[in-house]
């Protein structure tokens, strides 16, 4: 943009006088047509407008448009004459006359006009090239403008934000405001860096720059026919002829291979550029070599100027920072992206006589405008953070406006073209657009105050700008006082819910297509409660809910939570969502990413819509090709291409770390000199960050917890299954020169979708088992959506890529899909309650014929009522409704007392005298837990409300399961009017459910038009023991946690299989934890005996001749932070330790264990630690003057010998130091030399 060519371009203060009146001021009418009258006292002596006044402004200056001009450097040879063009351009944008058929050499042709063509302009020039804009000159210009009685002041001067007491523009604008004059200022061109905006005073209207629906592009055609789209305002035509294309050593005989300018060299290195002639540095191009040829340069500004000066026919250059802005060029030129430039380089390197042609620029339509440009300076306000800046955005890209005919079109001294109109970009252009709008408002409301005009512009802006209508942040860590999204997560989720429709977007070509949110016409308010470490304070969450409710939002989507459910009175999301429900606002929350473990969902409140994550019909995969030709397919969103080149593999670099740390590529463990230029194998997915840091060319990763989703990687990387990863590792060990290449990721069709992700948290509901969770599933795997351009797309802070769209997975992504669907339903039914909207989404969900099973949870505990179908949800036919009083009854039925209840409700709610069964709560699903392997017969009671057709009859249909019988009474519901309610009962009976299993069926109410489906689930996943059956008996449990359930159910004792290596614990009943082998012996006896019996003896103490031995549960070294410091230091007794105990605490940690003891037996390093502390205290009593390190040394060097050691001995004292040596073996395989 204009401001980036030189610092003196922000040099005019333009004042718009809205009232149109005639001022002669001593000049003749003929003078006024051409020259502008000076607004001060006339100079002494001979006076001539030609020698004292502004330049020609052509048509826009007709009729006394500019009525005065002042310069504040007349004593230094200054002039008000516009010899740069910037002032003419900005002035005509604000208030230029309407001119037909304007263009820049045929580009952007059309009618040009300012914001208020009837307004007049006074110009004040407080800046001078080479000097800048002194504060005293700026303040003098403000004083003069105020004294002259202007109406609107527009300022195209920029800089760094300063305290208001030291900011001449802020001071001058304050005085103008005091006199009723609004000041409009450009935001600056230093974006997208946060807090880069310089215009921050609250009394100034600060303006960002956005695109228009027209862009100027250019095209490069290579000799092989390849056409590349670039950017430039190129008015020249080469008539379709191809010309020689040269690059590198072919363009110079004048330059050395490296730059002497350190700053330029550093910038070049960032782009992989290391030679001056490739960037076409000043003085590097040989005129004889470049004449009549097209030159390829790795930098734009220096490259274009140098190529023009050297006489090149044209230039193709890289424009990395302003790649999507077109600048006027003095010769045929086009700027390309890095990818485009690489295509040209590849063509040159593979062609004997490379040729190219540069087409004349053309104007094209832009569908996604207006969009705030990346160069436009950003907030937050660094001086007054509570004041949002910038205030508004206005057109500032590729703007055609009047230009000074005496100014260089391109700022190049050798460009002698003279034009009446030019195309510029920058906030210098957006600022006068807003000033013109302010003048337009002023013409209708001349008595309005400056805040009123500013308010009118800000509160009525175009809908694009009001997509995000508010943002709050809460008690974040110091330096994080901003609602700005620095991680991309918030931008992604918000755009998923209600983002605009944007065509042809992708992540580096992946997942290309059209993106849109659930309701593109909706608006967003964001509430930032988490810091960059994903820590979300409870108080902040509750404050955000309060603010959102007060702000009157319609739907709340919360993409945060826990993988463990909390009781509702201790869960801020449940409490906040309850208050939102009471005010008519539905809260949507992701189920969590803790699957597939049963009961892992953390969002279980009945008044919340809990959403699982499922796949879509597009998967993103990646492939690795080994040197032996083997191709393996894995997961990753890898935007990098190695072009088929194979690179050496490396694994288990032990030069910095040993053991498991080297295998997993732990942070700081990879040696750059070893892995650079190689593909490194890492045993965990997180190893990619260390591989990237160390400079590896790529990485092969072993799959971790998430096996069915691809994540963005910062370097060429692929995540393989354990089996395929071992194939790569085996190839590495068995091959002398193992090598491979990693392909760029690709899209593939997933015919099995939608399927719940394995990571998606499962039910059942661990707090209220009779309320099914999750409720629904929605797309949540590999979703393309908007992303914050200042956030690293791979979440690796070293990843410097900046993208507008990225691909994420998780229930954080599925939640806003469902929120968008809820908002969609609400647009059709704004008076519906949260429960009605929730019911509509649940009862119309799609159930895949490919039912999903995994080791832990099946069916509805994975996908809820089904995959959301927003279209059907608009017209569900019947809904299950519930209101505050219903939820209060449910809470009371599940054991909440009055105190806990009021912590949730926030009022004086109390429980009714008669409690209802939780399973009779009017929920759109039916769930019950039953004892294992026992026949069951349970009933559910529900009430539905007719929201479909007034006169309608619904008949019940059961989608059966052979393992249970379902009866519905009545089986026919007849309605005569809308909102009429009907009740029914469902009885479910069956022969029994095995432990840790479930059976399900569905009830469907249908009137021929609507199908209202309600899942019915009977499970035994917790609370499975029947007290009547286990009382007085010893129970066998396959899981160590079964002992707790046996105690709850009243069993006499329990025998459990203990696969857990943790410390032994006290049981609340006669119990024994057996090793797997011994437990299987008991099961074998049980299965082979008609009436098996047993007894459990009281525990006894025995002698352990092997002691002391470090317990298996005790944490191990090596030291993960400082590997050269041995940890732990010592060991001490920590197993089965008898010590004093609190008599008010249960010795088994079970609240139903009512025993009270003075002493108890515990195990753990919590017990060993005080043993050593006591020993240290014992030493201290003998040596009170010893330092901490001396006491520590005494304990370490005198402990019992348990390993090889170095011992210093005097005969009396033995001072022992252990010696540790790491061995380089992995799973019995010999390591190959790296």
Describe this structure in words.
Residues 76-461, 480-845, 1107-1199 form the Peptidase S8/S53 domain. InterPro entries: Peptidase_S8/S53_dom, Peptidase_S8/S53_dom_sf, Peptidase_S8_Ser-AS, Peptidase_S8_subtilisin-rel, SBT, Subtilisin-like_FN3. Residues 1-28 form the signal peptide. GO terms for molecular function: serine-type endopeptidase activity. With 1234 residues, the protein is of the alpha/beta class. 23% of the residues lie in helices and 23% in strands. It contains 29 helices and 55 strands. Strands 9, 10, 11, 12, 13, 14, 15 and 16 form an 8-stranded mixed beta sheet that branches. Strands 27, 28, 29, 30, 31, 32, 33 and 34 form an 8-stranded mixed beta sheet that branches. A 7-stranded mixed beta sheet has the order 2-5-1-6-7-8-17, sandwiched between helices. α12 (489-498) packs parallel to α19, α19 (811-828) packs across α20 and α28 (1165-1182) crosses α29 (1188-1197). The protein is globular and about 110 Å long. It starts with 12 loop residues before the first strand and ends with a strand.
Tell me the layout of helices and strands.
Blueprint: E1 13-17, H1 29-34, H2 49-52, E2 66-71, H3 86-95, E3 99-104, E4 107-112, E5 120-125, H4 135-148, E6 152-155, H5 168-178, E7 182-186, E8 204-210, E9 214-222, E10 227-230, E11 243-246, H6 262-270, H7 287-290, E12 294-297, H8 301-310, E13 314-318, E14 333-336, H9 338-349, E15 355-358, E16 362-365, E17 392-395, E18 399-402, E19 421-424, H10 427-444, H11 450-459, E20 468-473, H12 489-498, E21 502-507, E22 510-515, E23 524-528, H13 538-551, E24 555-558, H14 572-582, E25 586-590, E26 608-614, E27 618-626, E28 631-635, E29 647-651, H15 659-663, H16 672-675, E30 679-682, H17 687-694, E31 698-702, E32 717-720, H18 722-734, E33 739-742, E34 746-749, E35 776-779, E36 783-786, E37 805-808, H19 811-828, H20 834-843, H21 860-863, H22 870-873, E38 878-879, H23 884-893, H24 898-905, E39 926-929, E40 936-946, E41 952-959, E42 964-969, E43 972-975, E44 981-990, E45 997-1006, E46 1011-1020, H25 1027-1030, E47 1034-1037, H26 1042-1049, E48 1053-1057, E49 1071-1074, H27 1076-1088, E50 1137-1140, E51 1159-1162, H28 1165-1182, H29 1188-1197, ...
Parallel strand pairs: 2-5, 6-7, 7-8, 8-17, 11-12, 12-13, 13-14, 20-23, 24-25, 25-26, 26-35, 29-30, 30-31, 31-32, 39-46, 47-48, 48-49
Antiparallel strand pairs: 1-5, 1-6, 3-4, 9-10, 9-15, 9-16, 11-15, 18-19, 21-22, 27-28, 27-33, 27-34, 29-33, 36-37, 38-40, 40-44, 41-43, 41-45, 42-44, 45-46, 50-51, 52-53, 54-55
């Amino acid at each position: 943009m204009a401001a980036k060519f030189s610092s003196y371009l922000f040099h005019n203060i333009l004042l718009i006088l809205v009232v149109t009146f005639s001022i002669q001021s001593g000049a003749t009418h003929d003078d006024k047509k051409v020259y502008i009258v000076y607004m001060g006292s006339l100079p002494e002596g001979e006076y001539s407008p030609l020698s004292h006044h502004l330049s020609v402004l052509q048509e826009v200056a007709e009729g006394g448009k500019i009525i005065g001009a002042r310069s504040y450097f007349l004593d230094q040879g200054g002039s008000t004459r516009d010899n740069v063009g910037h002032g003419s351009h900005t002035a005509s944008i604000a208030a230029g006359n309407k001119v037909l058929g304007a263009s820049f050499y045929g580009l952007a042709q059309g009618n040009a006009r300012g914001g208020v063509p009837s307004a007049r302009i006074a110009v004040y020039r407080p800046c001078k090239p080479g000097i800048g804009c002194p504060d005293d000159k700026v303040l003098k210009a403000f004083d003069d403008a105020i004294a002259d009685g202007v109406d609107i002041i527009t300022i195209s001067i920029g800089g760094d934000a300063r305290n208001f007491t030291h900011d001449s523009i802020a001071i001058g604008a304050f005085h103008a405001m005091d006199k009723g004059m609004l000041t409009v200022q450009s935001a600056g061109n230093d974006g997208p860096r946060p807090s880069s905006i310089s215009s921050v005073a609250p009394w100034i209207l600060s303006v960002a720059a956005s695109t228009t629906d027209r862009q100027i592009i250019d095209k490069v055609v290579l000799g092989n026919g390849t056409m590349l789209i670039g950017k430039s305002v190129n008015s020249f035509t080469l008539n379709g002829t191809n010309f020689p294309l040269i690059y590198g050593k072919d363009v110079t005989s004048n330059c050395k291979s490296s730059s002497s300018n350190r700053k330029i060299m550093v910038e070049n290195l960032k782009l992989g550029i290391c030679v001056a002639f490739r960037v076409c540095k000043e003085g590097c191009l040989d005129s004889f070599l470049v004449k009549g040829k097209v030159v390829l340069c790795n930098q734009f500004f220096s490259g274009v100027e140098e190529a023009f000066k050297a006489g090149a026919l044209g230039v193709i250059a890289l424009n990395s920072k302003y790649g999507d802005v077109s600048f006027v060029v003095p010769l045929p030129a086009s700027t390309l992206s890095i990818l485009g430039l690489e295509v040209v380089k590849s063509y040159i390197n593979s062609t004997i006589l490379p040729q190219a042609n540069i087409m004349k620029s053309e104007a094209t339509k832009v569908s996604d405008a207006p969009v705030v440009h990346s160069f436009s300076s950003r907030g937050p306000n660094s001086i007054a953070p509570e004041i949002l800046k910038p205030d508004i955005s206005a057109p500032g890209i590729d703007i055609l406006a009047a230009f000074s005919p005496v100014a260089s079109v391109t700022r190049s001294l050798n460009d002698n073209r003279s034009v009446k109109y030019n195309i510029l970009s920058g906030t210098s252009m957006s600022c006068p657009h807003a000033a013109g709008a302010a003048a337009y408002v002023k013409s209708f409301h001349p008595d309005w105050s400056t805040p009123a005009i500013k308010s009118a512009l800000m509160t009525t802006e175009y809908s694009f700008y009001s997509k995000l209508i508010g943002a709050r942040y809460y008690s974040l860590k110091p330096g994080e006082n901003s609602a700005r999204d620095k991680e991309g997560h918030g931008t992604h989720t918000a755009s998923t819910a209600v983002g605009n429709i944007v065509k042809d977007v992708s992540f580096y070509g992946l997942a290309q297509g059209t993106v849109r949110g659930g309701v593109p016409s909706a608006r967003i308010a964001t509430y930032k409660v988490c810091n960059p470490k994903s820590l979300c304070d409870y108080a902040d969450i509750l404050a955000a809910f309060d603010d959102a409710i007060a702000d009157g939002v319609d739907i709340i989507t919360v993409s945060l939570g826990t993988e463990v459910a909390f009781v509702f009175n201790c869960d801020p999301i449940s409490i906040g969502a309850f208050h939102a429900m009471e005010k008519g606002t539905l809260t949507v929350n992701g189920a969590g990413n803790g699957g597939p473990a049963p009961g892992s969902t953390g969002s279980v409140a009945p008044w919340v819509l809990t959403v699982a994550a499922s796949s879509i019909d597009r998967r993103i995969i990646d492939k690795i090709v080994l040197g032996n030709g083997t191709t393996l397919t894995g997961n990753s969103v890898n935007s990098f291409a190695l072009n088929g080149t194979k690179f050496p593999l490396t694994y288990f670099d032990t030069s910095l770390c040993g053991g498991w740390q080297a295998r997993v590529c732990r942070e700081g463990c990879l040696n750059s000199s070893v892995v650079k230029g190689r593909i490194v194998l890492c045993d965990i997915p997180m190893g990619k960050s260390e591989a990237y840091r160390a400079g590896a060319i790529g990485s092969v990763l072993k799959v971790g917890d998430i096996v069915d989703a691809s994540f963005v990687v910062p370097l060429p990387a692929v995540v393989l299954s354990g089996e395929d990863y071992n194939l790569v590792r085996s190839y590495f060990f068995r091959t002398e020169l193992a090598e491979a290449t990693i392909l760029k990721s690709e899209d593939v069709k997933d015919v099995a979708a939608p399927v719940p992700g394995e990571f998606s948290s499962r039910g059942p509901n661990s707090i209220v088992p009779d309320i099914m969770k999750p409720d629904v599933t929605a797309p949540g795997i590999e979703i393309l959506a908007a992303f914050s351009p200042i956030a690293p797309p791979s979440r690796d802070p070293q990843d410097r890529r900046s993208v507008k769209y990225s691909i994420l997975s998780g229930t954080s992504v599925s939640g806003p899909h469902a929120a968008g669907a809820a908002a969609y339903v609400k647009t059709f039914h704004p008076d519906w309650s949260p429960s009605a909207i929730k019911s509509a989404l649940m009862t119309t969900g799609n159930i895949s014929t490919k039912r999903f099973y995994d080791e832990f949870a099946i069916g509805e505990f994975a996908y809820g009522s089904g995959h959301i179908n927003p279209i059907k949800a608009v017209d569900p036919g019947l809904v299950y409704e519930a209101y505050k009083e219903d939820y209060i009854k449910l809470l009371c039925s599940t054991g909440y007392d009055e105190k806990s209840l009021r912590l949730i409700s926030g009022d004086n709610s109390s429980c009714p005298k008669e409690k209802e069964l939780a399973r009779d709560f009017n929920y759109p699903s039916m769930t019950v837990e039953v004892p294992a392997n026992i026949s069951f017969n349970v009933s559910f009671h529900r009430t539905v409300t007719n929201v479909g057709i007034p006169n309608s009859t619904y008949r019940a249909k059961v989608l059966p399961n052979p393992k249970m019988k379902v009866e519905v009474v009545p089986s026919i519901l007849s309605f005569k009017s809308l909102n009429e309610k009907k009740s029914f009962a469902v009885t479910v009976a069956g022969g029994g459910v095995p432990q840790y299993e479930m059976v399900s069926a569905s009830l469907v109410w249908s009137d021929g038009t609507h199908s209202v489906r309600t899942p019915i689930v009977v499970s035994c996943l917790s609370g499975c023991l029947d007290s009547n059956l286990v009382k007085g008996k010893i129970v066998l449990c396959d899981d160590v946690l079964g002992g707790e359930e046996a105690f709850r159910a009243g069993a006499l004792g329990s025998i459990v299989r203990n696969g857990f290596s943790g410390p032994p614990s006290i049981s609340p009943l006669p119990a024994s934890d057996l090793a797997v082998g011994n437990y299987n012996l008991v099961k074998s006896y049980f299965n082979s005996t008609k009436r098996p019996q047993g007894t459990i003896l009281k525990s006894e103490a025995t002698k352990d001749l092997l002691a002391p031995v470090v317990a298996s549960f005790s944490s191990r070294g090596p030291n993960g932070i400082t590997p050269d410091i041995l940890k732990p230091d010592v060991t001490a007794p920590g197993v089965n330790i008898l010590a004093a105990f609190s008599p008010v605490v249960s010795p088994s940690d079970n609240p139903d264990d009512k025993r009270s003891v003075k002493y108890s037996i515990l195990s753990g390093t919590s017990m060993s630690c005080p043993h050593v502390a006591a020993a240290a205290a014992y030493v201290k009593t003998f040596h009170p003057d010893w330092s901490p390190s001396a006491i520590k040394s005494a304990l370490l060097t005198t402990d019992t010998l348990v390993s090889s050691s170095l011992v210093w001995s005097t005969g009396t004292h033995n001072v022992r130091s252990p010696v540790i040596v790491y061995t380089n073996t992995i799973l019995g395989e010999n390591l190959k030399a790296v």
